[in-house]
Amino acid sequence: MKKYFLLVVILCLGAIQSFAQVIEPKNPVTSQAKDLHADHAHQFGYCTTIQLLDTPEGIQAQEEFKRWNEAGRPGWQQIMDQEIAQSIGDRKNFYARNFETESYDFLEFELRAIGVKTFIWVERTEYAPNKVSDDKITEMLRFLEVETPSNSYNPDEGIIINNRSIFGFAPNVDGTGMLTVLLTHIPENDEGLTTAGYFAPVNLSLTNSNSNKADIIYINTSTIYNPDRQISIQSALRTLAHEDQHLIHANYASLQTFLNEGQSEWAESMNGFIPRAPSNLQTPEEVNRQLFTWRPGVAAVLFDYARAGLFHGYIAERVGPEATGSITNSRANGKNAYNHALQGSGITFEELLLDFHTANLINNPNVANGDYAYNSPARRSLRTTGISQEYASYMVDVSNTGSVTYGGADVVQWTGVEDFNISVTSPDQIKHRVVGKVLNSSAYDIYELSSGSVTLSGEYESVTLLSMKNGITGATELNEGASNYEYSANWNPLPVEKETIGYYQNSAFYAELPGEPTDPARSGIRRYATRFNSTITGLLNQITFAVSGNARAVQGSGDLMVSLHTSVQNGVENDNGLPRLVPGIMLKQTTTDIRNLSPGANVILLDGQQWNVQKGQEYWVVFEVVSESPDARLEFLIDAGSSDTNDPDYYPTRGRIYLQTSPATGTWARWSSSNNYLIDVQVTGLYEGALEIPLFTSLPDQTYETMFGSSLEVNVAATGTPAPYYIWTKNGVLFQSGTNPRLFIEEVGEDDAGTYTVRAANYAGYTDPIEFIVEVVEPEFRLAQNYPNPFNNSTTFEFSVAEDGFVNIDVFDMMGRLVTSLTPDNLYRRGFHQVSLDARHLASGV
User: Given the DSSP bridges, would you call strands 655-662 and 665-671 parallel, antiparallel or unpaired?
Assistant: First the structure.
């Protein structure tokens, strides 16, 4: 069905008021569209091939195929002679895995497409115009054999040729040289995960009764149709590229899971499809995950897919697709397989790991000859946000420890520092990079060390300690554990502030730019604009915008011009009387090739371009496609808007559309519900507010004597402008920091004893540290007086036990009769405990 924008022209006194034009967003976001900050990993299914490879049946089938292959494939001619010519409409039964019963079902399929290298069969119950239709099957065959998206390894070839050119040859079990694709329904598992597709190694066997004795890929029909909404087959195509790598790999070796899945994940992007979003960069735990970790069958495995795909994609960025593809047919495994791919590149695997995590942190093509960046359009906006420890500018010094796993990274960051000094002590297996982002510049200062000291002189927006373990202490890297390191740093505070500004809700519609040329209602759309105002004076250094995930979301050629404008008032809105604000004078502009953009989040970096903004001023960011080809198209995501004219996130209107009425004239219109684009702007500047040195108004006690197992709470208070930051240390090491003036330990243990300090700090200065002692009292067998006493509805008993054991606390009445047992043979750990008595059901006087 064709979709339209409805252009509504409001009339006033018989004249067209062009500034009052309103456009109705009629384009719904499809299932492929993405929210700017959504966790995209869950929009991708997962692959169950690895589970099948690791079953006894799968292992036996692989070993049998290997022996048969090495023996020259005896009896192969007989297998080929048994092949029967196939015709469209033929029906045949195939074995397909039933993941619930862990067995195979013998299902009926119908042949719906025959290509030069492909048979596509559809499960009979899934073949229908409103399910798996012939149109979708034809489209699938085209991508398998004829073409792939424009940014693939070879857009003029299909998935099959691309994969075999890069990874090697398929097993060709039946000798036909054909790939059989079975489209079948696969239910979700108990974890709610959807199997997008799989390759079953049992089909390599010539003796297993469940073997189809052919090169087969199974694709879940849920990746092709959804009964509740229309979807594209992009997910199915990605899965075909993914599973085909698994099929090819079966012809060569048995890579460890991380490498095998990493190759399959990269096969998707190598063929031009949108890669899985790097969700593994969003939390410190996943950034610091052991490189080869794999957690099959649970939701956490989606992080493993993301990590593997990102790492193998980075390898391809550094050494090229052919060398990366050789990992699939390498006879080595683990680190040795990677070294096989790196031969002749001049880079070692240990250096690659360092550069990989540095690229995830910086991702800037203008640094280190592009080694710390991704050229793939879909990867250009990614950055590590999983920072394990962040230090505020006015902390001025810190000492702490860290831990890092093999192949992972521990990320510690300081914001707003001047003349920064850091010392690090660590074993040889850990390497560190100190990355300083120079204030108001696109430059980075980067230093590398294992142990020692580094000084960064000057002003820095941020300094990051990136710690990576790329050496091993044991026999193999596959099970290498974590190692610890220590660091201390001091600096002069620099009052740097960052602000990320966005006014949107979840995506609801998309809008193409330029407007659809064949549609008179939209052909005049030439620009989109979003209005913002910053609470700080500084530099606009980053713009992030979201593009839909539709098949036509990014196409053609041309440049996207992004510009910064003043805001001016041009009358009032006819329907609500609010000021009509529109873009005014252009202040700055930059361009990027639209072929460098991709569905999902895209980032325009403005480091060093001096896009100055003033606190409290209104500005517009304007987007326009220029020098475009006739088929150029870029689909922006917008939200559902708001009808509440008192909502400052939407009114006065923040989202504008420029409608060109002639080559030299046009007007700024708006969406019908003042819909906002999914756009963020980031501003960095120096604090310019009032300054008042912190002063404590409430201090901690000198000593806290705390029972083992009980809780400890220490409260302080301080004045100061801006609001103070509280820095707590224990035995000279940072314990906690932040704006919370409360230290709370829920269950005190022996390790909590020590000398603590607390200090209040802000941009104006800091207090002297206030010291206090925490003593932990060893528990004894003791039952304290209940409280309150006397009581009405309830009372609490406190007790402690010197060692783990079973405890009975019984309540008796005045006559010595048992009323209730509060802890009937409950097991309690050594320490302090509480238990309550609910007396509402008891007689008075108990």
Answer: antiparallel
Give bridge partners of residue 527 from the DSSP assignment.
624, 658
DSSP state of 229: B
Nearest in space to 776 (alpha carbons), one of 802, 757, 754: 754
Of 243, 228, 69, 222, residue with least CA distance to 160: 243
* 3-state SS record for 559-601: EEEEEEEEEEEEEECCCCCCEEEEEEEEEEEEEEEHHHCCCEE
Write down the pLDDT at residue 305.
93
Type of residue at 809: I
**Residue with the two structure tokens 């004078």:** 585
Closest CA to 546 of 37, 45, 178: 37
818-835 residues labelled b (16+ CB within 10 A) or e (exposed):
eeeebbeeeebeebbbee
> CA-CA distance, 617 to 567, in Å (whole number)?
8
> In angstroms, rounded to a whole number, what is the distance separating the alpha carbons of residues 280 and 650?
33
Rounded-to-integer distance, Cα 529 and Cα 548, Å: 17
* The CATH number fitting domain 692-777, selected from 3.40.630.10, 2.60.40.10, 3.30.230.10, 3.60.20.10: 2.60.40.10
Q: pLDDT under 50 in the chain at which residues?
A: 1-21, 26-43
Contacts of 2 (CB under 8 A, 6+ apart): none
Query: How far, in Å, CA of 64 to CA of 70, rounded?
Result: 10
Closest CA to 96 of 17, 211, 177: 211
Measure the CA dihedral 808/811/814/815, to 10°: -60
Query: With contact defined as beta carbons under 8 Å apart, do 328 and 245 qualify?
Result: yes
CA dist 793 → 614, 796, 799 (Å): 61, 11, 20
Cβ atoms of residues 46 and 268 within 8 Å: no
Hey, what amino acid is at 233?
A: I
Backbone angles phi, psi at 507, to 5 degrees: -65, 140
User: How far is 113 from 89, CA to CA, in rounded Å?
Assistant: 9
Q: For residue range 202-226, list pLDDT tens digits in order.
A: 999 999 999 999 999 999 999 998 8
Only one residue has tokens 């209005």, namely 531
